[in-house]
Design brief:
Length: about 80
Amino acid sequence: MLYNALRAIKRLPQGNSGKTLDDFADADAINLWAKEAFTLLVETGIVVGNDGMLIPNCKATRAQIAQILYSLLSK
């Protein structure tokens, strides 16, 4: 949802974290409809994962969302 909102207002994050989806062991578990968003958010460093995993099919905690928002607002 965050990706879609940022795209709608033309405020997608910029930058290069040096990471790609291939750096995460569970990247193949990302649904096709979410792959574009995950790709951008990982490559720009907004989403950093945890212990080499993105865990794309689980609910995010408040702490994880807070970190994503902090990373986004810090760019």
